[in-house]
């Protein structure tokens, strides 16, 4: 079954809908769209007043798969909560397996699913693309290296590092990622004993581990009980392989978050340097990355999350810091749905010298190779990528700010989080 046949199945189209009249309409509609650059309508998304289940078929059937995928991504960016959004995302999951997709479309599709935390959807496609062995393979190799880092797979990271540097020896962040993980790490199956002195109690018995909340290349986060104060906390503990530089990173993470003291910045409670851990508030709503997968989240809630991140960046930049790793996985939701920015371990003072940026693919601005200093506009670009993943670039309120934040020219972006927040307020997104 082809991609467009699959779309027809998802949208309830059968052969009875595909008449000769539809075929003629496909040719006319598709030709006009490509010639004049207009965005074709899709039924139920609000993209036009035309209604009826044939519209998606008429538009997409006339397109090559790569063009069709790009158009569906455009539609989902414009209206991520449209009536057909769930069906279109399901279709994109099928499209991700098409080996004929152009490289640029494959990269864009991969960033769409990476932003949603759905690595498993795009990984096979990235591995096919990585086999090219030329410069076009670099985006796939870098994304696969990030996946290996999150898994704690040092062996694969070593292989990918060699492939990347053979193509581009100056590719930023590659050596640094690998060096921090070169020591052996154990797998997730070892549970609490991977990081903690014993299976249940840490910090001299003050904290009791309840369960693991998640892990990545740097370490793991546990739900723990503070016996002394009688409250639940999130305990972030670094892998043993990370502990050579854990002290500076942990102190930065704890001190910056504590100094910001904002509604939309994670609350840090304590630092356990001997354990390589930091205790912070437990956000029962989980990561924004996971919440974004739920298509039923109303648009006004998504906008509230966007404003919350902008507010956190405004405070961060106003106090002279650059976060340097803004992404959906580093935004958490409290039990009441309020979004907070977390993970300040890579934060640096504005203007200070930094190594090539190591952020998640899709959230790193293009100038990182040539900008050796921490710049708030790097966070602004990452904010734009996050906001685009939430509401698209064509949202009537947020869209213009998103497009400005994603400008390839740093000078064209809002200068910092304060300017971002001002722009959103001026556009009508008020707290």
Automatic annotation (TrEMBL):
Pfam families: Pkinase. It comes from the Bacteria. Residues 14-25 have a biased composition (Basic and acidic residues). GO terms for molecular function: ATP binding; protein serine/threonine kinase activity. InterPro entries: Kinase-like_dom_sf, Prot_kinase_dom. Residues 14-55 are annotated as: Disordered. Gene3D superfamilies: Phosphorylase Kinase, domain 1, Transferase(Phosphotransferase) domain 1. CDD domains: STKc_PknB_like. Keywords: ATP-binding, Kinase, Nucleotide-binding, Transferase. Residues 207-431 form the Protein kinase domain. PANTHER family: MITOGEN-ACTIVATED PROTEIN KINASE KINASE KINASE 20-RELATED, SERINE_THREONINE-PROTEIN KINASE NEKL-3. This is Protein kinase.
